[in-house]
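From the pipeline queue, job 12 of 40. The input is one protein chain; the requested action is below.

Action: predict structure.
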Amino acid sequence: MTPRICFTASAFLIHQQQVLLIKHKKLQMWLGPGGHIDQDELPHLAAAREFLEETGLQVAIISALPFSRSSLEESITATSSVVPTDVFHPVPLAVNEHWVCQENFLARQAAMATGTVYQPTKLWSKGCERHLNFTYLARLDGPLEIKPAPGESKEVRFFSQQELVSSLEITLAPAIATEVALAFKLAKKHCS
């Protein structure tokens, strides 16, 4: 039996050499704002929507690859008489698959083996077992007024790269630390 995968999207906003993070209410660790991708929703749009819900900030998603739709269209039309109909979306800086609730997987596995009804944990009631997360870089696209929506984490703040490395009070999963470092590097290229 394979684990259930829920698709999620998140983004890192680098502003004045600091990254905006939220303290996840369930995991009690600092992450980039994000959440589940709705049915028929594109990952980059989910990242921007979740960012707005969790921080109150309007952001635009930036592609991790340094190309634009117009430059792609120019290169395609230069070699062909066919007008492109494909849509190019922002490329995430990372795509990460990770356990979010192994307990749900084990409970579902046990229920199947015994023929009983499976009940997901209260903490992960959607039945999530693993997340496949699309992580993006974002730029501020509105005023800098942090106002999380009701029910969202109230712990939202900016951190410098040095603060994330040196503070013992900040808990970052290793994958998140790697993604934040990459976000800082890409922000220097894309947001300068």
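Job complete. The domain at 5-190 is CATH 3.90.79.10 (Nucleoside Triphosphate Pyrophosphohydrolase).
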